[in-house]
Every structure is written in C-alpha cells, then in structure tokens.
Amino acid sequence: MTVSPDSPLATLWCPAPNREPRVNGRRPDMLVLHYTGMDSAEAALDWLTREESKVSCHYLVDEDGRITQMVREGERAWHAGQSLWAGETDLNSCSIGIEIHNPGHEFGYRDFPDAQMQAVEALCRDIFTRHPIRPERALAHSDIPPGRKRDPGEKFDWARLAKSGIGLWVEPAPASSALGLGPGDEGEPVMTLQQELAAFGYGVEITSTYGRGLENVVEAFQRHFRPERVDGRADASTRDTLRRLLAAVQATPVA
Fold first, then answer.
1. Rounded to an integer, what distance in angstroms lies between the CA atom of residue 251 and that of residue 229?
2. CA atoms within 13 A on the CB side of 118
C-alpha cells in the first residue's frame, strides 16, 4: 500500500524506523520546533531515518522550503528526548516535531531564509487544522529541556509565526543595562520568578535561590521570547515579558 504524507505540503515521504504508537492513544496537542544542527538537510534526513540514530521527527523543512515527512502525525516520534513542559514528561506522546535545517550554534548558526520560514509557517498552520494545539503549546526544543538544547535559537522568527496564530508572542521591552536578578540571589523576588516560569510551563524548582537550574530556564525563556540578550539574568525586560505572556495565556479562549 502506498503511504502519502499527512500534509499536502510535504513533497517527500521518507519513513523513519524510530516510531511507535502514542502512549494511551494520546492525540497530539503540542508542537515542538527544532533545528537540525548538521551541515546539510540531506545529512539530517539520512540521520533521522536511521534506526541506529535513536531519533526521528515528523517533518523536516530544508532551507529552500521543501518539506519531508518521516513519521505519521498519529504516531510517536523520538524528537523531544528527556524533557518537561507544564508537568508532562512524555512529550513525544503528545507532540508533533518539526526539524528545520540550520547548522546550529556549533556549526555556523545563521538566519533562517524567507522561503524556509514561509514553509514552516504554512506547515504549522496546516497541522493546526488537524490537531487542537493551543498557541502557547507551540514551543522551541530549548524550552522543554533548558540547559540541554538551544534550538531553534534566538535567530528564529517566533513573532512571524505568532501573527498566524502559531505560538505566543508579546513584543518585549528593550533590554536595559540593569542586571536584574541573577545567580546567587535569594528571597521572595526569586521565588516569584520561579513561580511565574512554572506557571507558564517551564520545569523549574521553587527554591527561592537563583541557581544554575534557574539560570538555564531564564536563558531558554530569553532565547525564545526576549532574544535581544540571552544571558540567563532576569532583568526587568525579561520579567515584564514573562508577565505579559502569562496574561496572554489567561486571555486566550479555551477551545
């Protein structure tokens, strides 16, 4: 039997061996965007479709905007790894993963071309027509295992996607020279920051101490939502952006 892609935008079907049923028949309600972090989209496709890689994803978008599907949307791909969001740990069972070709921070991180961004935007919109994914559950890979992943990174245009209803975005206030909260700080302001990050979905312990774990989470937040300066310090711009995002989540109607 010939298998065709779930999305009419995918021009190539290249099945990956690393796939399985979603646990308890879970329907996807989350979208996770990655970059490939490899020299070429061809190399990434080869790796993502090898059993020994122990990874896979649902779609790959190359720099020219070509889309390849590797795992059916109804199946569990191996793209999220050990991660957490909003209390959930089996994110592979509740998410769809899209790999976007870019060499990444270790191999010459660069801007995402317009043709590629157009394709990503169109693919995400198409996926949203089939699955009940709330805007705030369209995430960066870096959001779900802070400190372990950096993709798709600070050059990715989340504001553009948000205009199409994909992901959440508020225009951040400009970063100032004031350092704000940072490693070694303690007390109620740190606890409030931890509580707000946890309420948004990040995996963070409520300890009232600004340790390395909190620094990683703040850095992940900045990389996605306040990319002007990614330094892991919770300055006024970072904290204001977080609070306005929380307000935007509360104002988003539940389908």
1. 27
2. 7
Q: Which residue is it, tokens 């890979």?
A: 141
Q: Kindly name the residue from 73, 88, 99, 136 that is annotated as catalytic.
A: 99
What pLDDT, on a 0 to 100 scale, did the predictor assign at position 167? 95
Cα separations in angstroms, 223 against 50, 69, 139, 142, 143: 30, 27, 11, 8, 9
pLDDT, one tens digit per residue, over 83-131 is: 999 999 999 999 999 999 999 999 999 999 999 999 999 999 999 999 9
Q: Which residues pair with 59 in a beta bridge?
A: 69, 98
- CA terminus-to-terminus distance, the chain: 36
In order, the DSSP letters of 19-62 are EEEPGGGPPP-EEEEEE--SS-HHHHHHHHT-GGG----SEEE-
Known active-site residue 186 = no
